[in-house]
Automatic annotation (TrEMBL):
GO terms for biological process: chemotaxis. The lineage of its organism: Archaea, Methanobacteriati, Methanobacteriota, Archaeoglobi, Archaeoglobales. This is Chemotaxis protein CheA. SUPFAM superfamilies: ATPase domain of HSP90 chaperone/DNA topoisomerase II/histidine kinase, CheW-like, CheY-binding domain of CheA, Histidine-containing phosphotransfer domain, HPT domain, Homodimeric domain of signal transducing histidine kinase. It comes from Archaeoglobus fulgidus DSM 8774. It is found in: Cytoplasm. It catalyses: ATP + protein L-histidine = ADP + protein N-phospho-L-histidine. Residues 243-268 have a biased composition (Basic and acidic residues).
Amino acid sequence: MSDEMEEYKQEFIQEAREYLDVMNQNFIKVEKGDVDAINEIFRMAHTIKGMAGFMGYKNLEELCHKLESAMGKVRDGEIEVTEELIDVMLKAVDAIGEMIDRIEDEDSDSVDVRDIIEALTMFMESREEEEVADRHELKPATANLRVDVYISEDCVMKSVRAALVVEALSEVAEVVGVIPDESDMEKETFDAHFVVYLNAPDASVVEDTISKIAEINRFEVSPVDGETVEMGQAVSEEEAEEKAEGAARAETEAKVEKTEKRVDPGRKDKKKLESIRVNISQLDTIMNLVGELVISKGRLLQIASEYDIPELKEAVAIMDKSITSLQDEIMQIRMVRVERVFSKFPRMVRDLARKLGKKVDFAMEGLETELDRTVLDEISDPLVHLVRNAVDHGIETPEERVAAGKDEVGRIKLAAWREKNNIIIELEDDGRGLDVEKIKQKAIEKGIVSPAEADSMSEDEIKMLIFSPGFSTKDEATEVSGRGVGMDVVKTTVERLGGSVRISSEKGKGTRIRIHLPPTVAIVKSLLVKVANETYAIPISSVVEALYVGEDNWKVIHGNPFLIVRGKLVPAFKLRELFNVRNGRPEREVGIIVEKEGEKYALIADTIAEQQEIVIKPLTGYLAKIKGFSGVTILGDGRVVPILDVSSLLGGDRLA
């Protein structure tokens, strides 16, 4: 395969997967009677079919064609939407996804889908004879608009361009007829001019649609008073789509490069391309280079301050603004909507609920909320664990819910929103809630806590035990949720990203799990603190406040140090002790008040050096196993500074 075709194949794979994500979401909406969702699935199946046909993937093309045909009959009210029909269509979507995976790995779409095609055919067969009869009884249609289109003289394939115009117009209006007829179009026996008759509610939409198509010299849209189009000229929507599909293939094969658009001088400017696809690895490379610039910027700022050179200070100040702007733009480019991950959950919840014999109404909010791509990718699997557990452990069976005085349909809501400097992701259900006593007993049985420790814990602390490795209140593993091996991954992953997890639950009423995340983990603002001669970085997102600590600020209870902050006791962790620093401490220290799971703690350092933006460099190999650090950064003077993992330190990890 040539480099050009390989590039086209990768674009096809990426676009097809995006369409499949949306199709999965829309099938859930179809079950609820959403007409727009039906139309969108139809269009996407049609688009994938056309791309697959050009690329030569005949099995994929056939399956998409069958799915498209079935959706067309659903749209026209010829097939009733049932759970069985949606099941078959979802199997078709899964098979399309499997084919896309094989195309990427093996350049082959050889997946056995005969049973799926047969099932779709069975749903359609009952209407086949009526459909054939209808095709022979097409009635003349009336138009309210006439569109005269003049293709550029240097257009290589005029029939392709004409068919693309008809396809584009069919998406915004009813195509009543085309002159010349289809055979003349295909033979290119017409000149550069052709006419399309439309039944359209708005002429401006028609004008905007044509203005976006390349190689159109000019066009004219004029009203007609209910003009009837001759039968030989009339085209159905299906015919228009088939013509456009063939045209799209021919255009791609011809590799028409000329894209200059010419219209009448009096027409408004056409909309320009506003977005392009960029390889993720290229974005990562640019981000790394920006990180190096940020480090160099810090070094220059330090030199300018040390040597007090006015010209250098001025130049560095200008460069600082430019680098900061570049950094902000790159960070924004890396931001993606949480919808990218959330989109797979409606289908997953539907399948799990049916498998478990439960009824679940799943809702999502805040799909437009944005997160750094890296953060979103990292949080994807933990969210899968949470949603699966909500369906399996949280929501009761319809019989149990009715017996408890609830609606037989359980409700789960997944929401995301921005709150100050954090992104909040919240999962809430109205299921059975957490049984605190059962959690306590299981934790003792598994040796997670001792009986004495369990008795001294608050209810909130006991609830957090569900995030302990291997914890589960179920006596037997299930195919859906296993033995609870996923919940500890949720907490570990979130905390590694600099976030936190909170849980609230009431037995018999439901459970709410709230995740706090930083919007990005690449370049962050941090507080640089000193302990003896060493410097450490604490992400600002973890810091509530900082204050000086004197001898009268301390109180020891049962051997544990507490800091007195405005009359309240805050558990204190001395970094000197955690890092085994043995030389004398200063007379006055600083307390960095941080927050974890809604509780405040104090990290005690010698002094605060400064606040600075830092580039996070991950630890690899053996270093990645050392607790207490989430990475390192390089300061402007070349020093390597460890970045503290606040959650790990507050868990009592001691570094040798």
